[in-house]
Amino acid sequence: MSYPGNQLYQQQQQRPGQQQPPYGAPMQAQPIYAPGQPTQPQHYPQYSPQQMGQQPQLGQQQQRYNPQQQPQQGVYVSQPQYPPQQQQQYPPQSGGYAPQPYNAQQPAGAPPAYASSQPSNLPPPPYASNSYPSKPPSSSGPLPPAYSPSPFNYGALASREKEPMLLLDRTGSMNYHTSADNPTPRRETIREAITGIVSTLTQHDSQASHEQGADEEGGGLRTVTFAGHQAEDLGDLNPNNLREKWSKIKFQGTTWIVPGWRELKAVYREEFGVRPSAERPLLLALVITDGEAEDTEEFARLLEEERDGTVFVTLAVIGTGEEYDRALRLYNAIAQRHHNVRVIPFSGETDPSVIANACLSMIRD
Q1: Are residues 151 and 212 in contact, defined by beta-carbon separation less than 8 angstroms?
Q2: Is the dihedral of CA 114, 118, 119, 122 positive or negative?
Q3: Against a cut of 0.70, is the pTM above it?
Q4: Separation CA 82–CA 106 (nearest Å)
Q5: Which residues pair with 232 in a beta bridge?
Q6: What is the pLDDT of residue 142?
């Protein structure tokens, strides 16, 4: 007995040139042929693990891998296969990383593109040092002419005692590279330079025995920092406390120099205001900054008020780029109007010893 469904199935399975098997006979699997293709089934070649390491090309004759018999010739057309050791390894999707494309130039054993850790065999960057030398860096030879401005003319006050003080820029730009080809942060270059400066000045601090708190800190370079609209008195910096005090400085904020200058003058008056004006030491202010201040014009007006000839200012400008150029033009304009102001342009200077020696030449008695 035949059902319509069985007849339809048998008609679909029947091929030209073939007889329909009797009803009830077991069905044999029939290969599927595409129109215009040979009547023989297509066999896709298999390859050995050794052959998988080579990238096949279109139309290239390859041998099928069969351990039972002699390999036969066949045409292989497929996507290129890469050895397991060259395939890109991706982090888990939960980590939030997107898969990276395979880089054929990546050397074997290289870390993935998203890895941030450096190989252990590479030397640390120049700013990763934790060393705080106890002696000022040495520099052979004379300073460049640009780092040697004309000395201050103290005139009749040349015999008076002198008090160097530091006004330090701690804005966020101090985290930038020291120069275009040196990734050392500016704060680290200045830290090494200040280490040399305070080591030298501590040995020649004429006011160490008179300053308040000298028994606690042992004298040194009185330092005030500025950033934003705030200023902070760090007290005296010397080789014994520089590491601790420097680690507490937060380099962030914009450049507003007037609050720092007012604080520096307040500290000076607190230390020496009780003396008669004729007996006060000369203030040798070293200002280290790396950019144009938002209140430069007000700072220039405050310098004009120092008419008694007891305040001498050295502006050490570090950094590079357009911001550095603008700041240098403004500070040079101030120096041209005030005979007690000097500018040292450390454009891209990366040697702390050069910076230290140039600054010392202006504030050391």
Answers
A1: no
A2: positive
A3: no
A4: 13
A5: 225
A6: 79
Residue 352: partners with Cβ closer than 8 Å, 6 or more residues away: 137, 189, 190, 192, 193, 195, 196
Cα torsion 219, 222, 225, 229: sign: positive
Range of the domain at 311: 154-363
Q: What SS3 string covers 27-65?
A: CCCCCCCCCCCCCCCCCCCCCCCCHHHCCCCCCCEEECC
Closest CA to 152 of 282, 56, 270: 282
Mean pLDDT of 247-268: 96
Cβ contacts of 54-58, under 8 Å, gap ≥ 24: 55/80, 55/81, 55/82, 56/80, 56/81
Contacts of 291 (CB under 8 A, 6+ apart): 169, 171, 173, 255, 319, 323, 324, 326, 327
**Domain total in the chain:** 1
- Number of helices (H), then strands (E), belonging to the chain: the values are 8, 10
Helix/strand/coil (H/E/C) assignment for every residue in 124-173: CCHHHCCCCCCCCCCCCCCCCHHHCCCCCCCHHHCCCCEEEEEEEECCHH
How many Å apart are CA 295 and CA 256, to the nearest integer?
6
Tokens of 174: 């101090």
Q: Is residue 139 part of a domain?
A: no
Say how far apart CA 261 and CA 273 lie, in whole Å. 17
314 neighbors 286 (Cβ within 8 angstroms): yes
Write down the pLDDT at residue 10.
54
Give domain status of residue 80, yes or no: no
Nearest Cα residue to 174 out of 290, 294, 326, 260:
290
Determine how β-strand 311-319 pairs with β-strand 282-289.
parallel
* 3-state class (DSSP) for residue 243: helix
The H or E element spanning position 282 is strand 282-289
Residue 62 bridge partners (DSSP): 74
pLDDT tens sequence across 133-170: 444 445 556 788 889 999 999 989 999 999 999 999 99
Cβ neighbour number for residue 31 with a 10 Å cutoff: 9
Is 173 within the bounds of a domain? yes
Looking up residue 174, the CATH number of its domain turns out to be 3.40.50.410
In a domain, 317, yes or no: yes
